[in-house]
Amino acid sequence: MKGSxxxxxxxxxxxxxxxxxxxxxxxxxxxxxxxxxxxxxxxAPEPKKGGRKRAAKQPAAEQAVAKQAVATEPVAEKxxxxKxxxxKxxxxKxxxxRxxxxRxxTKKTRxxxxxxxxxxxxxxxxxxxxxxTARPADLLPADxxxxxxxxxxxxxxxxxxxxxxxxxxxxxxxALDALEAAATAVAGVLRLPGSPTALGVDEFGRDxxxxxxxxxxxxxxxxxWFRVVAHGFDALPRDVPLVLVxxxxxxxxxxxxxxxxxxxxxxxEVRPLVEDSIFHFPSMGLLINRLGAxxxxxxxxxxxxxxxxAVAVFPEGATGFGKPYRERYRLQRFGRGGFLRxxxxxxxxxxxxxxxxxxxIYPLLGKVGVRPFGFPFLPITPTFPWLGLAGLLPLPSRWHxxxxxxxxxxxxxxxAAQDEPLVMRLAEEVRGTxxxxxxxxxxxxxxxxx
Length: 450
What we know:
With about 450 residues, the chain is of the alpha/beta class. Helix content is about 40%, strand content about 10%. The protein has helices spanning about 1-10, 20-25, 25-40, 50-55, 60-75, 105-110, 120-130, 145-150, 175-190, 210-215, 215-225, 255-265, 285-290, 300-305, 320, 340-345, 420-445; strands at about 230, 240-245, 270-275, 295, 310-315, 350-355, 365-370, 380, 400-405.
């Protein structure tokens, strides 16, 4: 008994109690612990008065038993290996053990569904599973009619079709279609028996029905023969009159025909003004007139521009297609500036246009004067007149049409058309711009046919 008491005194039990940890260092903390420990265990507190005298009267055996209980009891109740019970989450009472009366009344009704929103019976649920699952049957009221409907497609506002003159011509015809259209064109021009009669000719001589019949031929020439590449037509305004100024080439007006076709593909209606000499060729003037060309005169041009239209002019005139092959793409003098007076009077924009490829379709080697017959001259080319009418077939050069930025001369006023020096200066400015467009495209071109 005495040996066990001595070992207990030598080994202080620290545990997790801060009083016990401090007792190993501070003796006063051990004394304080011994005073409060019996009260915590339920032992009788030591009396304040006369405590020493009473303890001295107790037998020595009882005092030894009391000291042994004080030394051994903390080791049994608080082992050092276990954690304090206060830090265990299980020591707290779960929220489920709280009285049901303290719960909010709304929690009892959240999970309860009204009769009309209750889940359908198993048979009805199986039937609904085969239908559309866009909305669950347990969340929305049951509506058999609504379940059968399919989701509607979002409607897009329809776009009104463009007028006939604004629709691009993109039909990609074959060679057979072009031959049939050519036969129709020849029969119509020569007024052969069985050829269609022109009924819808406008005030300037254009026949939309005839143009529709020969469209495959025009498209085949545009896409397959000349392989035209147009640039800049989409940027032109549509709400003001326009005067397109281009370079002239070739005895036959292929340039005016192709230029008007390229503009129509971009949604712009352009009426080319051709010189009077073209109308002296047999049936040639009638053919180009039915296809939209207009005889060049101030009255016709003013009427078209007055209606907000667009015209194409070739100020070089006969001197333009009379240039020898070595001087191709060198612009001649723009006459007396008649196109600029027209633009000033009608308050139209002047648009410079260059056509590269048109001056190689008829390489001019020489010319013979035939003015008594109504022609300025008879061209001599590598194929004409040696091959007869077949010599009028143009060479298949590659065409590039470039549209420059429009000139706005409306700030000068309509009275500026009477100012001769101003007209000539502005006409020369337009001519220089067209020449610059030609030079830029020629510098980029690799070959006549590419």
